[in-house]
Amino acid sequence: MTADWPAAVARGRWVDSLLAVGAVLAVTWPIGGLLSTRPWTVPLVALLLLLVVVGSLVRAARVPAWLVLLAQLLALTSGLAVWAQEQRPGESAVTALSTLAVQGVDTIQHYAVPAPATPGLVLLVLAGTGLLALLVEAVGVTFRAAAVAGVPLLLVSAATASSTGTALDPRYFLLAAAAWLLLLTQQGRRTLARAQARSTVTTVDSGAVTSGGLHRLSVTARVMGLSALVLAVVLPGALPHLPPTVLLDRAGDPQAGSVSFTDTLDLAEDLADRSTAPVLRYRTDDPAPPPLRVSATTHYADGRWYPAESVAGPGDTEVRTPTQLFLAAHGVEVSTQTVTVTQNGMRAPQLAVPYPTSAVDLGDVPWTWDPVSEAVGVEAAPRTYEASYLKLGPLTTLPDSVGAPPQRLLDVVPVTEVQEDGGGWEMHLSRDGQPVEFVQPDGTRQRPFTDGSVEIVAPDGTAVRTFWGVDAADDALHVDPRSADRVRALATEITAGLTNQVEIALEIQRYLRGPDFTYSLTLADPVAGPDGEPLDPLSHFLETKQGYCTQFATAMVMLARATGIPARLAVGFLPGSEGLDGTRTVVASDAHAWPELYVNGLGWTRFEPTPSSRAGSAPFYATPGNEEEVPTVGADPTAGRPTPSAAAVDALDPRGGGTSLGWWDRNGRTVGQVALGLAGLAALLSVVPLAGAWRRWRLRHGPDVTQQIEGEWAGLVTGLADLGVPPPDEAATPRGLRDHYARELAADPPTLEALTRASARLEAARYAPRPPSLGTMGEDVRTVLDWRRRHTPRGRRLGAALLPADGTTHLRSLLPGSRPAAVDPVR
């Protein structure tokens, strides 16, 4: 019984299993860069070791392969269940797993890279890596196809590198490649040992066979490893690199209609994007232009922003916004500024324009205006366009009415006249004829406010405040319920004693731009709330005081709403960097989010809570008793990026006034896609030829001269068969083989002489008392094959090159359950 243990251990293939999971651990290790910490390391290693132990023990028992897979799957599930119950004690395994899975998905959706390592996200990492290890171990060890197991390893390695957005550390590739090559070597040793045990040749030294096979395997491993390393380093550098993004969806080169804002309003990866490809180029006489606004939304739910539902109508030339009307009604000094976009990279229907927009000129491109988001939409992306906008003058004070708490007109001016129409409506008017209340036939009352909003009071007394088509009670004044208590308490503390909306907004802005807050693309680690669960995204930011523009803008929106000021989130781009010729260039990393507050007397007004290191100076609006000079936004709010040189500014395009793109800018992505496709096609077409070359090399480099001669002759037989010269129907002597091929080839004398020398050397290797030297065997075989190629139709030559019989034979031998193909020297 004791003597059976070594054989049982060998059947378990422990070393192979450890190499397989080691390769998986190497290719998945960069996933840690996507998380803030690595709490999954210890449980992951334990889980992988569990797969090794269970798989090896079951294999040692000589059971079918499917039972090994089933046992490992049960072990993986059990290990995950035990870990999940440790994270959530008192819950069943199913409940704990489902709860953590939901939490992991929520973390992925709501947090930017590097995401906090919540237990739910760790569960997803453990489960995904464990399933990958199960797949690689099953293919490479249980089914003994180590070469095929390299495919999922390569795919995961490529996916991990593209997810991080940076070059993959060579260490991860080298470790995985080394483990995979060692696994190939292990299986090669067993294959040679089995072949030697089954061999009936007694004249060959078994030690020479084994050592020679190991030598060939080691040489091949080094060649394959070096080739893979060269490809891994050279190929990514040769192809255009398209950085990953969350906010911007790139569909092509930076021409009109190549990028657009998606539904995911999380800007983290775009802010970190170092690509210099222009999204927009424009000119303006405004020394401190505002951000270029694309859209705005009031809808925030479950820790994220959602686009507003569009009610756009056709546009003409001028644009009317509530802000324009308020500024005119309250006598606020404004000036009209213009931007001329010379290169547009936004895709229809989106358009980037400053706010408040007063007019647009898109040429012949039809456009729409959405009164809810106050965004311009286009049917087709214009290459160039012009937009005018209003800008506050150098005010030191604002009128008393600006920022005053909104009141019902019914409470401000008395009703002096009631008018009725034939349908049962009543209109209550003030002395100057201004409507202060409308009464519908069913008793519903509409009461305008001084800020333009309207309160709708139902017959049962419930009231809803709306304005400009937006339901302020349910949207623009809605405070996120998960953070409402914290937000309202903080808003009360910050704005204590203030009543003017501008003063309140400035105080909130000052608080968020204070030294306690840090601008960072990396969010802080999760913080547990009173209930033990991680805080919601907004509460997390207010607690840790670390985030980027989306977090700062969201916090100001909710704090303003908590004080009764309607607020929304706007998205677009910072003004970009100014070149030597005055042209401003906007790139992906200029993506920005900021709050807009609905201020009485000003309408929707931009504020900037994001620190100046990112967004430049904050807009300032003076209030009575707080007279100060109004600072302007910095001329270049794009921090940390060099200004393009004059040589980088393209010449104007005479066709449309836009800047012309270089050939690579226009065609780089297409060239990259074509090159990638051709590289993939070439790699696919080279699989069979490379397998054939590998098999012929192995045959020609046998451990002794006899096998080398046999290998050369076998290469001649299969090569001629590929070129249309079949072997004899029955086994023949070397002289008979020579006569057969001489008849079939009808070759010239030099070729026939080479064939005669090769067959004579084969005869001596088989029957002479002492084996001959290798001599010119290889040259003679190549002479015969070259002559045949020159006299074979082109189509047949192409088929022989792409689908050689040696290659298909070798690949079939790699399939699970296949035996190594024996060499038939006759055929």
Automatic annotation (TrEMBL):
Keyword Hydrolase belongs to the record: no
Alphabetically ordered keywords of this record: Membrane, Transmembrane, Transmembrane helix
InterPro entries tied to this protein: Bact_TGase-like, Papain-like_cys_pep_sf, TgpA_N, Transglutaminase-like
Name by which UniProt lists this protein: Transglutaminase domain-containing protein
Residue span, Transglutaminase-like domain: 541-611
Disordered, as annotated region: 613-652
Pfam families xref list: TgpA_N, Transglut_core
Organism superkingdom: Bacteria
Annotated TM spans: 12-34, 40-58, 65-84, 117-136, 143-160
Signal peptide range in chain numbering: none
SUPFAM superfamilies given in the database record: Cysteine proteinases
